[in-house]
Amino acid sequence: MRNFDLSPLYRSAIGFDRLFNLIESGQNQGGGYPPYNVELVDENHYRIAIAVAGFAESELEITAQDNLLLVKGARVNSPAERTYLYQGIAERNFERKFQLAEHIQIKSANLANGLLYIDLQRIVPESSKPRRIDII
């Protein structure tokens, strides 16, 4: 994958900082751990499923601020020193960020069978919905 230098655009584009930050963060999102799915349940409902096998509820943290959803997993107890012949299960801490569109709200989160489910809903205020203008 190519890395693009967006710094020349910062000099002449005013007010597009957020857009450039989104593009850069998309380029720099390292690794695929933990794996996740984003599902469209219906027109206004979404579900994120994150594979967090081995993490307890107390070791997971979900934070929403502005249009950013941050999911962190941090092991409280360091596992005892083990000798592996093969280690295919990652047991490391993680931080996964999701950029949310406007009017997306987090409705619930639950942990089941090693998957963390986060349910989201788009709630558009009446003032932002299209309205019909009668011609008189």
TrEMBL record:
One of its GO terms (cellular component) is cytoplasm. It comes from the Bacteria. The keyword Nucleotide-binding does not apply. Residues 27-136 form the SHSP domain. The keyword Cytoplasm applies. Gene3D superfamilies: 2.60.40.790. It is found in: Cytoplasm. Keywords: Chaperone, Cytoplasm, Stress response. GO terms for biological process: protein stabilization. InterPro entries: A-crystallin/Hsp20_dom, ACD_IbpA/B, HSP20-like_chaperone, HSP20_IbpA. Associates with aggregated proteins, together with IbpB, to stabilize and protect them from irreversible denaturation and extensive proteolysis during heat shock and oxidative stress. Aggregated proteins bound to the IbpAB complex are more efficiently refolded and reactivated by the ATP-dependent chaperone systems ClpB and DnaK/DnaJ/GrpE. Its activity is ATP-independent. NCBIfam families: PRK10743.1. Monomer. Forms homomultimers of about 100-150 subunits at optimal growth temperatures. Conformation changes to monomers at high temperatures or high ionic concentrations. Belongs to the small heat shock protein (HSP20) family. PANTHER family: PTHR47062, SMALL HEAT SHOCK PROTEIN IBPA. This is Small heat shock protein IbpA. The lineage of its organism: Bacteria, Pseudomonadati, Pseudomonadota, Gammaproteobacteria, Enterobacterales. The gene is ibpA.
